[in-house]
Every structure is written in C-alpha cells, then in structure tokens.
Amino acid sequence: MRTTATTIAALAAVCALTLTACGSDSSDGAKAPAAKSQKQQDGQEEAVDCADTNLSQDDWTKHCADDAGSEEAPATELTFGQTFTYDDGLKVTVDSAKTVTDFDEYDDRPDADERLFRVNVTVDNDSKKPVDLDTIGVLVTGATNGGDAEIAYVSKGSKEMTGRLAPGVKDTKNSDWALAKEYGSQVLVTVTRMSEDVDLFAQDPEWTGPIR
Question: What is the DSSP string of 151-206?
Fold first, then answer.
C-alpha cells in the first residue's frame, strides 16, 4: 500500500503542476505576438504580419525580406537625355547620336552603305574626388536588328573620353562610330566603368535613341 500511495501522490503532483501551467496560459488569454515587419516595428503606419502563411510573395519580399525597404538599384535601361548616377556620385548622360557630314582630309569617312555619327556623353562629377575618365568606356550597337558599330575618328570637334575630371566639374565628351545602314538608325549605347569606386558586377547602364 505504501508504494501505491507514493505513486498516487506523485501523479497528483504532476497533474497539479500541469493544471497550474495551463491555468497561467489561459488566465490572461494572451498569445505569442506574431512577427512584425520592420516597418511596423519602426512605428510606421503600414503593418504586415510576417508570420501569416497567406501573405503573398510580393508583400513578403517588400516588407519581410532581409533587404526590405532598402533603396532600389538605379535603372540601367535609359533613353537619350536620361541620367545614370553611380554610387560615388558620378553622373553620366548619353545626350545624342548625330550624323557627321563635315570631314577634314584625314578623317574617317563612311562607305556608301554606312552611317557615320558622333555619340555625345555628358559626365558630371558630383563625387568628392577626381574621376579618371580613362576608366569609362563607350560601346555602340544597332538597336533594331543587331549589328556592331565600328569606332571611327573625325577631328573637328572631337573631345575624347580621357584625362581627369575634378570634383564639381561637368563636361561633354564624344566618340565617333560607323554603322551599316542595314541595321537601321536606332542605336544602343552602353557605358562601362572600371573603377574601385563602383560595383564591377552591377549591370552597365544602356541608352537607346535615334541617329539624327
């Protein structure tokens, strides 16, 4: 009988502890708080329950992902006249592609089936240190049905992308190109930059526009 009594006492103690724990959970009716988005935690109006299994993928990415609310990368698909800004503050704008008709004696001239044109690019050094323009490259292809443009040279008005651009200085450089007429009059201009001040794995900005 001693063993039976001890066992019953032990079971009673376990049940008492269990009931006490359950009672404490239900006494105030509180539940574990759901995970909140960072925006809600920061006191902003928009609130999203990141633990909601019915939350759409777009909302989860926007509000709950590790990089939620971070600044979006700048657009890299542009048209002539639009500006791309690098992380260090350098601003680049492909202004235009204009047909060249005035040639000196030793200038490159287009064949009968080619267009020779000049691409004008404005660089604005809004950073805090000089920029080496030799780290900036310009590539041109046809934007309609392909075709690579070939580099050309026309001396009159030439301002090559070279040298150093001081902080706060803005200038327009250019380069000359020849493209077969079969590839149309729309071109794609890609600007590349090889510098420790930029993300070398980021998408290069591209501009599309007509040869005028």
Answer: EE---TT---S-SEE-TT-EEEEEEEEEEEGGG-SEEEEEEEE--TTS-TTSPPPE
